[in-house]
Amino acid sequence: MILGIETSCDETAAGIVDLDGRLIANVVASQADIHARYGGIVPEVASRQHIRDIANVVRATLDDAELDWDDLDAISVTNGPGLAGSLMVGVNFAKGACAATGKPMVGVNHLVGHVMAAFIRLPHDTDPRDTNKIDPATEADSHMPLAQALADLGDAPAMCLIVSGGHTELVLAEKSPHSLEFKLIGETRDDAAGEAFDKAARTIGLPYPGGPAIQKAAENADDEPEPLPRAWLRGTHEFSFSGLKTAVLNRARQEGIYPRKDSDPQPDQQMQANIAKAFQDSVVDVLVTKTIRAAEEFRCSAVILVGGVAANRPLRETMQAESPLPVITPPIPLCTDNGAMIARAGLDRYLSDARDGFDLDVIPSLRIG
Amino acid sequence: MSDFQLVSETEEDTVETGRALGEVLSVGDAVLLYGEMGAGKTCMTRGIALGAECEVSARSPTFIILAEYPGRVRIFHCDLYRIIGPAEIHELALDETIDQGALVVEWPENGAGALPEDALEVRIKMEPSSGVRKISMTGCGPKSRSLLDRFTRSAKVTEKR
Questions:
Q1: Nearest by CB: A195 against B60, B66, B68
Q2: Residue B2, SS3 per DSSP
Q3: pTM of the predicted model, to two decimals?
Q4: ipTM, 2 decimals?
Q5: Chain B closest CA to A110's CA: distance in Å?
Q6: CATH number at residue B86
């Protein structure tokens, strides 16, 4: 059993996977049930929120799993990238737990964690991949060795799109004996895709977080709203969303909903919906087209779609529909930041005998590949 | 009132203005970037990091709030877009960063009262119709006035004027 601790940004999270990478427990502090169970509060400051919640989140995770500290094989923790003060809470908690229990500690790159979320095996009664194209979790014998999940990918590498509030990265994943090795192929030059969702939502008067708000509003849009531009950055595997952000701003200004005072009437919902859909179409089109192009260029066997923005339904559906390769994407609760993905990434490091000492440092600008 | 003004017609112009500023930046300098969403604050910071010979290219740190780019001068790139009030800013220990490098802050209006007083204020104003940006700079103390002086004397800026 591997415990994973995640405090790199806003979510205080912990999760447990077994040594076959099967999901045992997953608790995120923003979930209401934690607050109900332990009377937690949601403070404004991320690092303070982590300090207040971390012990209860880990306790709830062990309780959910019906496990004790003694049952754990190792404790893994995100040590970057992320906000320094937030990362420190998780890393220090993990050090304290390891000191008290004598369990080994492994540090995990948050971005590797996102990718490994796609390899978490789920209980057989749930739809494991939200896809009917490839399904290593249920197809694999439950006693099959861990490496089998990776073997299902074949020998060719996989192209990973890691897309979240803080990241938009294309990463080539190649198999190594116990896990995957990563090589950064391209990333955003300015805003992350999730950040663009948040800012576009704010501009057109939709609530935070922007991803779900834009997806919901877009469902009521006209079939073909006036499109917004796409930044292709041809000849590169890079992304840019700042131009799109400005285009949303200009459209909102033309429509007279930006800038908007609290005393102004609510913006017209149909117009909001149309801008939301045009924005979402642009982001999805660029992400999907460039990911598939990169996957073909690097002769990949699969596309792995992960990160908080991978929870966006049109992105998942369009990637599935357009990709000639199988698309592996975790179920939505494992796309957003969570502890199970850190446990799953920690499992690979644990099995390859990687260990970190009490000098493990936080690396706020840690990269992948 | 601003001490210095220039016009940026393209994104590249904004990056180049940033680069010229980055080239004359030293440890202890603070730059506050004002401007609405899409004005080009991150774009200018990308230029500043290039000018400061940072190896990692700057991108928006809205999500992680504070990013660090090692270079000739270490750049601390801070984005207060998500910050709620000055109390939260003390958590970031920005006063410690300024001893180790130069501080560049986006959305400084969210940190009023908790940011260095002697800072170069850069205001980027976008003309919605043409996309042209007016950039104005003000030094608010001896250190930042000296920075502005070095910036305006640099060859690239002289050409632009």
A1: B60
A2: coil
A3: 0.84
A4: 0.70
A5: 13
A6: 3.40.50.300
